Amino acid sequence: MKSASMTLDRDYIVGRIDPRIYGSFIEHLGRAVYGGIYEPGHPEADEQGFRRDVLKLVRALGVPVVRYPGGNFVSGFNWEDSVGPADRRPRRLDLAWFTTETNAVGLHEFYDWAKKADTEVMYAVNLGTRGPENARDIVEYANHPGGSKFSDMRIANGSKDPLGIKLWCLGNEMDGPWQMGHKTACEYGRIANESAKMMKWVDPTIECVACGSSAYDMPTFGDWEYQMLSECYDNIDYVSLHRYYGNPTNDTPGFLARSMDLDGFIKSVVSICDAVKGKKHSKKTLNLSFDEWNVWYHSSEQDKEIWKREKWGPALPLLEDIYNFEDALLAGSMLITFLRNADRVKIACLAQLVNVIAPIMTRNGGGCWAQTIYWPFMHASKYGRGTALMALVNTPVYDCADYEGVPLIDATATLGDDGGVTVFCVNRDMTEDFRLDIDLRAFGDLKFKEHILLHHDDTKAVNTEANPMNVSPVAGPGGKVEAGRAQVSVPALSWNVLRFEKI
Ligand code: AHR
Hints:
The protein is α/β, with parallel strands linked by helices.
């Protein structure tokens, strides 16, 4: 058995954890909405057509915010199509995903779903084919009390009270040539600035997220952030980051090291934000919204086949990645990375929530189940609240194709408001268990409460409707605490949640 150690101190903190780092995302894409959260006629459908079984799994995740309605979809979307009597809403060709959008579910329906799911809507406006005027109009529609064209339209559509949407995305991935209305950094920065300014004149309580790069390896990365932020720094509140990883060469150690890339991406964007802050002599520190993150590669070939067969069909089964055990380990390391950067990452959205690169899968007319990645997300969301601690971890490391010195034990910790400490830990070692010594002396009397373990002998093991708990958490071997020092075993290739509570 190998060994590693972790030292924690109550004064050594990263910062307060914004609960919105446990956000998610639902786009009008594939079967996320139609056949995912919404399936009228399904035995589990409620009076509005929302699947109760899906709602139950969503609520258990504890997702404080859900980004909506896109994604690439939003860059060609007219929000007016999605409100008013459902039978009069237009069917539109969605050029992002080559499907037909029926608009059966629109803003009000999604808002109602969000209430049922115990979450808040983070609404994205179209800055691709549209601009500041439409962005201002939708804020007036959603948030203005009444007595104006769009607020009265909302009232006529059945919502007397404003929807009170607080968080707004200024478009989506506007740096990407695949995006409808793709822009240069300066073009986008100007439009984002004017949109945010006008949206906040309508409702000064809102917060706005400007589009950063759609990936760390975009050729425009860095210049995009610097130029775009130079235009809109003063009027926005967050800059977005998006990142997806895959393991197409079946290199598990290399794949599990990808959270090093994530950390580098976050730190680079923080540096650029602060450079713009410096240049502008600004007193404002800009924070990050990592509003798309996940593993995404399993479904890529399948999607090409679907489009060959039936372009423009509604609710095509697109981006239906089936996640395996190693994907859950990387998801765990990505969550650990957000906690380590909790001083600047204030929002993060697991992309997405249901069926589309999602922790939750459904079968039309059938059941719904949790994929492997559901579990680390649920554990972090449930137990990773309060204050992020700056953990000093002493661990052996390994080298892989893209990184040197990858920690075999990837771990961090949080201090709950009840005084309890939770350690999150991925053992990246392919074969060896670790003994982890945790120095908890600074926290007074703590006792061991629980060891939650996610492990499977097969890195490619998946959950299915027939075998939904194949990869699921069990009670781990745990350990003991003596004089403030804990000793626990963490098995080879595993996700661990170690909970310590006040005596
Ligand atoms: O989440 C799937 C897609 O990934 C989103 O629509 C887009 O923003 C990103 O490229």
